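Same chain as my last thread, 745 residues:
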Amino acid sequence: MSLSKISRVLLVAALLCLGAWLLSFSSGPGVETAVRQQAIQSFAPAGADVNAPIDVRSLQAGAAQPVVVNLRDIPAGVRDPNSQLDRWQRGEIDLDEVEGIRGAAEMAAMQARSLELEPSANVQIAASGPAMAAPASGTGFDSLDYTECCGGGGNVPPDPELAVGPNHVIAVVNVAFEIYNKAGTSLVGPTTFASFMAANANCTGVFDPNANYDEEYDRYVLGIDADGVGYCIAVSQTGDPTGSWNLYYFDTISNRREFFDYPHAGIGQDAIYMGANIFRGNSFSEARVYAFDKVAMYNGQTASAVSVGMGAAHDTPQPLNLHGWAQGTWPNSGPHYIFAETNYDGSTHTVFAWADPFGANNFSTVGTVDLNAATGVTAGMPIDTPQQTGGTLQANDFRPQDFEYRDGFAWTSSTVACNPGGGTVNCVRWAKINPATATVADAGVYGSSGEYRTFADLAVDACGNMAIGYSKSSSSMFPGVFVTGRLATDTAGTLQTETLVKAGEISYTSFETSAPRRWGDYTEMTIDPAGTTFWYLGEYSKNTGTTNGRWGTYISSFSYNCNPGSGGDNPPTVTITAPNNGATVSNTVSITASASDDNGVTQVEFQIDGNTLSTDTNGADGWSASWDTTTASDGAHSITAVATDTANQTGSNNISVTVNNAPPSSISLSVNAYKVSGRKFADLTWSGASGTNVDVYYNGTLYTTTANNGAYTTNSLGRGGGTWSFQICETGSTTTCSAVVSGSW
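reply #2:
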């Protein structure tokens, strides 16, 4: 054992002894006092100078150039060769390495102090709010899991985020994404970020994905950390995220000793804003925020960026994420606000204002917020979370998870340790803040004895109602997905009864060598652009068929009885009614759509693979177009309908179809897929092929060319589960083929 490892072992032993000594002096439960709060906060690490000069600087010498990527050209399931599992197996990363705001010893000491928290009467005990559960559940479906994250590799934790537009839902995890319609049908993916962004050589070693929807411009935004030195941003060219995207790369560090981590993005009126933590080695250096020229990126033009170094006193800056365009409450002037943790004490946060980043570039401090005082609850460092059958989950820390705009206020959530009366657990903390004055309008802490709630995230609808989702676990429960919320008229500081969305299935394990195992680092609650339906991407323990990673994600929608009225002119909605999504078509096809709007639809444009087919300007007899499929190649194509209303707003709907004008193939195929010692294989048998050789396609990609002898057995296709598909074609042909045969391992 090396000297450094012996030192770490001795340090851990010393900390355990210290914790036991502290517990031996613990007194019985008592009422929490202001003096007690001040005493706990005094143990927090001494912060850097909060008044240190702020470093406003241009991010890079040259502006970023776009690369156009058509998502339809990217096959699903392409392996990311630099997934966390692959890099760990190659010895490139250390899973035990701590990359926190404070060092391992200091974090352990802060968690030990959390165990000393006294009971607080100001913690709202879960299930003690108003009688009705809130909000009402809608659609729910399984999303990406460990076996789908990396095309065969693996990543922990998943870091799920979600973007929702009028017709599409995009779920992202480390390091893949999938696009669905709102019924839960998968339209694209799972697609690895490595394959999606391969057109830009700088976008490698990706992790920590972000997903946003710009309500004003009807664009989807995907961002991801590029190997700790840059940030890759992809913006959809239209409101149809299954088509073409503009891809950009921006440097994010000032020298190669820096490491850029934990990016989080927010949509602003003039830019895409992003905040991150900067490290040097394993030591935290500073918080940093960035502004990217969104209009230039949406138009596929050269885009510039600006950054602000906020100093070491602040960490985890969360940019405001705007909502309310369709309701007419989206701000059209003023600065963009940033919310950051200050002095890492679990209580103090600072609101910053950033005005005109590409012009005068004024960055200033609005004021500080004391969330301990606002809630009446002293926040402790979150502690490791137990689960049924043993083993613990890492709780991370109390950093803010979001900063969501609605009607002049900004809402945020975080996980904190608190004592509801039966000992220290992890609790949900939320706050409604006026960013223009840095004052708290409402706040609360929600928890219960023996139950641990982590990685909360919230959103607010057009009526001022809030929904918040999180993971919950205990010694008698596997980690599951839960949601609660509050009506705008509810008693201040309270949430309603929580709802179980998806129960955990199995004890969580991962390829990490020992507990506590990483879980999180965040989840995502968002609101659709109509301002009425919440969508949540939560995380639960799932039986994935492998102990290397037992995380799964689940998408669910919720709503209150919210009618935003005529606060703004809503964009139109459109649905393709024929042909059906996934249909096989040939010869001349009639495409029909239904469209509606508050004030009227003026036209519906029909597109094939993103190119205009025709535009119908008279909907008296319905909206329709005629498509001669013989002008298109056989294979998969997209059909998009784009409706425009009297205010020139647009809404779109997209489906996929398969064109098949070739004569029927005489090739028949059968597949026997199986596992040997955890590795995947398949036996293929076929008949009816006429050539000397045949092409074997696996998951839509040419796998090999082999002799046409009627039988073939694959090499090992890796470990884990997931879906498979095979097809046999005449060599060199993509039309004279068997039917696709598919299934699951």
